[in-house]
Design brief:
By secondary structure, this protein is of the alpha/beta class. The chain contains nine helices and seven strands. Strand 5, helix 8 and strand 6 form a beta-alpha-beta unit. Helix 1 runs parallel beside helix 2 and helix 5 packs across helix 6. Bound molecules: adenosine monophosphate and manganese (II) ion (MN) (3 copies).
């Protein structure tokens, strides 16, 4: 089996439809794919239909939450995506995203970029709004040369239109996932700029809250860092996951099914008793 347990469709900030993501994953040789849109499970049914018998499609989500003042992403794998409580929680996340989008749009108006919110609604009708949509429009309007610059100049922490979203605390996101039968995984642990001690603290709180695993193979995670994190995983009894975090075919640094190998001596989540 070839596993890719982290990717996005146009139901969040990905470029392709859920169906296109599935077919592209199949063509890339992926045999088990989790669709993990930001704070949304709206694409799962379409992805499952497209998957048919050709590949195994795992219902997933990537939830934005907060811990120690940092925005952390927690993946939920194998959840009941029609669970009412989960859907209510994700509706709350969507509201937070719309509230933030309104505030970002207002800040951009002051920076003489107008009408972004209406254009997002029009151009991305299937999506829960994210900063990626603003970035795409800023590039399309020629305000910046590329996506990265849109974050540096406007949308990132130091950008002129940065707005912190009011995400829930990390243990709450973990609880939502567990309550819908899902397996909580800390996404891309190397991206939070945490010291070793802080990461250990984060993972301990995560485990205590019901967390089960962390991503130990994803694009741009160097083997040395992966080793260091694998040690933490072993120490805390967390399992390993892997994913491409694919968003669009234009991303040169990743692709469906593409990621480094898992570090040695960790237990892949798909070998665990929890796996379907
Ligand atoms: P959001 O969840 O709406 O706050 O947006 C976060 C998403 O924006 C991430 O999942 C990435 O897809 C993208 N992103 C965040 N920071 C950057 C960056 N510096 N350059 C490019 N894309 C970014
Ligand atoms: Mn994204
Ligand atoms: Mn993420
Ligand atoms: Mn992601």
């Amino acid at each position: 089996m070839t596993y890719d347990l982290h990717c996005h469709s146009h139901c969040s900030d990905g470029r392709l439809s859920p169906r296109e993501v599935v077919l592209r994953a199949r063509d890339a040789g992926v045999s088990c794919l989790a669709l993990t849109d930001h704070d949304s499970v709206a694409g799962i049914n379409e992805a499952q239909i497209a998957a048919g018998d050709e590949l195994q499609l795992i219902p997933g989500v990537e939830i934005s939450c907060l811990w120690g003042g940092k925005e952390i992403h927690v993946i939920g794998l194998q959840l009941r995506h029609d669970d009412e409580n989960l859907l209510a929680a994700l509706a709350g996340q969507a509201q937070r995203r719309w509230d933030r989008a309104v505030a970002i749009s207002q800040k951009l108006e002051k920076d003489s970029v107008s009408g972004m919110l209406d254009e997002i609604r029009e151009r991305f009708p299937d999506a829960v709004p994210g900063r990626g949509h603003f970035a795409a429009l800023l590039v399309a309007r020629g305000k910046v040369r590329d996506y990265q610059r849109a974050f540096a100049r406007y949308l990132g922490r130091k950008g002129s239109a940065y707005v912190a979203a009011q995400w829930p605390a990390m243990p709450e996101a973990v609880a939502w996932i567990r309550a819908s039968g899902g397996l909580p995984i800390v996404a891309h642990p190397g991206r939070y700029e945490l010291s070793g001690n802080k990461l250990l603290e984060l993972l301990s709180v995560f485990k205590e809250a019901g967390g089960l695993g962390l991503e130990l193979a994803y694009p741009q995670l160097f083997p040395k860092e992966a080793q260091r994190m694998a040690q933490l995983a072993r120490k805390l009894g967390l399992m390993a996951s892997q994913g491409s975090d694919f968003h669009s075919p234009e991303q040169r640094w990743t692709g469906l099914g593409r990621m480094p190998p898992l570090p040695a001596e960790v237990t892949p989540i798909w070998h665990s008793e929890y796996w379907c």
